[in-house]
Amino acid sequence: MWPFLAWFPAQRLVLFKWVLLLFTLLPLLSNTVRQPSFLAHLLVSVKRHWSNYLTEAAGIFLFLFMSGLTATAVHYPGSWLAEQLAGHAVLERAVIGLVVGLTVVVIVYSPWGKRSGAHVNPAVTVGFWQLGKIRPADACWYVLAQVAGALLAGQALLLVLGRYFAHPDVNYVLTKPGPDGVAVAFGAEFLITFIMAAVLFMALHTKRLQNLAGWLLGALLALYVVVETPYSGMSLNPARSLGSAVAAHDYAALWVYWVAPPLAGWLAAVLFQLLFRDSPLSGSSIAGPNSSAGSSASTKTSTEPPQHPVE
What we know:
Blueprint: H1 10-32, H2 38-75, H3 80-85, H4 89-109, H5 111-116, H6 122-130, H7 136-161, H8 163-166, H9 182-205, H10 213-232, H11 238-248, H12 254-275
Helix pairs in contact: 1-12, 2-4, 2-7, 4-10, 6-7, 6-12, 7-11, 9-10, 9-12, 11-12
């Protein structure tokens, strides 16, 4: 626990959490509420881009569902894989990390992922919004779709796996602070999300790495599962944490995962803008700027928000 948190009485600590959450959302809210027709933009966007939103929901559904299946196979007592890996915590996390990383790669480079940009994470969407690569209305729908997909995945895991998913050794694949406490979990989530966003933006900014960004992201997440899980459960993704929390009816420290990752993603985008203001990103597709299904940078026949800046 960080020493300064000991100065806060319990009530003030709760207030501190919600003030921090408001600070995280303030940049997005400040830009959207200035637009008197924002509701109209929301309605128009959902009519035009609903398929992108469904893709985002499906992407995070697959991500959480595969994570839950793998964690259950690795941790549930009596499963063949759990018996083979018993007593080897690092190997257990390595198996989960491998599946998580490969799942991310599949999502990013699938035709559907290329269509929406495969954000699959509110923290990533907030970062691309700050960079001007997705309109505010579309960003809102992306986040809502990501939340919906994660909630459905949590319920689907309950339906399919039942008591296996609820077993204490699996524990609904909840992301919870480790033995070092909430403050360490917050710092860890902020750090790993900031690094992830920075690596992603730099890869998309570097021509020879643009089409490898999804592979870099998958490898980084696999490494995070192995190294960072003991500190915060390795979320990086507010929607993913919410999906597990609702399935478990356990919301302890959920605010950590809804504040630290979006704040880190936004800050990484701000710093990227300061460093590369003269050479912005060409799009927000993690698969690379030339991989969008049915889009072309040289024509104006397709102006879908994941590939084009705010008008």
